[in-house]
Amino acid sequence: VKISVNNLSADATDDDLRTLFELFGKVNFVEFQASRGRGMVDMSSNSAARDAISGLNGETLLGFELDVKEVQERRGAPRGRKPKRRKRR
Questions:
Q1: Which helix (DSSP H) or strand (DSSP E) does residue 52 occupy?
Q2: In CATH, what number is assigned to the domain containing residue 19?
Q3: Which of 38, 56, 73, 78 qualifies as a FRET site for 16, CA 20 to 30 Å off?
Q4: Is position 35 within any domain?
């Protein structure tokens, strides 16, 4: 289950996020974008993800209040190039 973590300090690291989320269960991977102040965490189970979200949302890490929520899968047409339009005759 993918979890979005926003409002992260630029001083935070992948290891900070991993350590924090491992308190709630197995972490598959962590991705941190310091320049954007956000990260992504993938938890191995739904229950661990739910526990992490409820336990960490609003908590403080390095002086910043975390915004933690489950990533919603996009539905609908895939993004990218638009299909070519047929010319009228």
A1: helix 46-56
A2: 3.30.70.330
A3: 73
A4: yes
Counting every residue written for the chain, the total comes to 89
Burial tier of 69 (Cβ tally within 10 Å: 0-12, 13-18, 19+) = exposed
Q: What burial class does residue 17 get, using C-beta atoms within 10 Å of its C-beta: 0-12 exposed, 13-18 middle, 19+ buried?
A: buried
CA 68 – CA 41 distance, rounded (Å):
10
Q: Which domain holds residue 18?
A: 2-41+58-70
Q: Which amino acid is at 2?
A: K
Residue 19 is assigned to a structural domain of this protein: yes
Residue-wise pLDDT for 34-80, tens only, equals 889 999 999 999 999 999 999 999 999 999 999 999 998 776 666 66
User: Does any domain span residue 53?
Assistant: no
What pLDDT was estimated at residue 40? 96
- pLDDT at residue 2, as a whole number: 96
**Is 27 a member of any domain?**
yes
